Amino acid sequence: MQPVHIPPRADLPTLAAAAADCQGCDLAQLPGTRTVFGVGPAHSWLALVGEQPGDIEDRRGVPFVGPAGKLLDRALGEVGLDRAEVYTTNAVKHFRYRTGNGPRRIHQTPDLRHVTACRPWLSAELNLVRPAIVVILGATAGMSLLGPSFRVTKMRGRLLPGPAGSGAQLLATLHPSAVLRADPARRDEVYAGFVNDLRIAVAARPTMDPSASVDA
């Protein structure tokens, strides 16, 4: 493995190009995987941080384009947001998987070492986008931004202070895939809770979009 090198004074496309060559952890050595970087406006009041790309995201090179992404789009629509308005990324940029009996690649949760190796990329993204609110989607994203003691069940639905000097607030909720995995008898209830968490983020939206003054 090689140390992660963040290019100085890089914009988002430069960061994405540099991350494509990252060898900071063993996930870069998995066959058939690529770095899946964040997408969205260069400056947005809201950033969504998930766990890692899944099989479909890895194949397409874009975050949240599989079933969890479709559910996320639906939930964003219910709170009056469009995906194009927000910056979407993952705490870990490569797909960690194991193979089964067939060709299907089976998701495995990233380890702390993977989260740690990718944290400089996530920090660099958020430093450029400068969101006022960062929505943490699930435990891995929470571990990246708030440390290994993070627990979704204890911290979800509350606005929390972001990293020192960032000016951002953090709001934790479930990962959309957790809604899809919920017991069918409770799935509507779990989805409604997820939407309500997003409403809290929308209610905390700054009166002036921080991106409005970037080029002033």
Automatic annotation (TrEMBL):
One of the record's GO molecular function terms: deaminated base DNA N-glycosylase activity
CDD domains: UDG-F4_TTUDGA_SPO1dp_like
Entry-linked InterPro entries: UDG_Type-4/5, Ura-DNA_glyco_family4, Uracil-DNA_glycosylase-like, Uracil-DNA_glycosylase-like_sf
Top-level division of the source organism's lineage: Bacteria
Domain Uracil-DNA glycosylase-like per the UniProt entry, residue ranges: 37-199
Keywords for this protein: 4Fe-4S, DNA damage, DNA repair, Hydrolase, Iron, Iron-sulfur, Metal-binding
Example of a GO biological process term: DNA repair
SUPFAM superfamilies given in the database record: Uracil-DNA glycosylase-like
Stated name of the protein: Type-4 uracil-DNA glycosylase
Coiled coil: none
Family: Belongs to the uracil-DNA glycosylase (UDG) superfamily. Type 4 (UDGa) family.
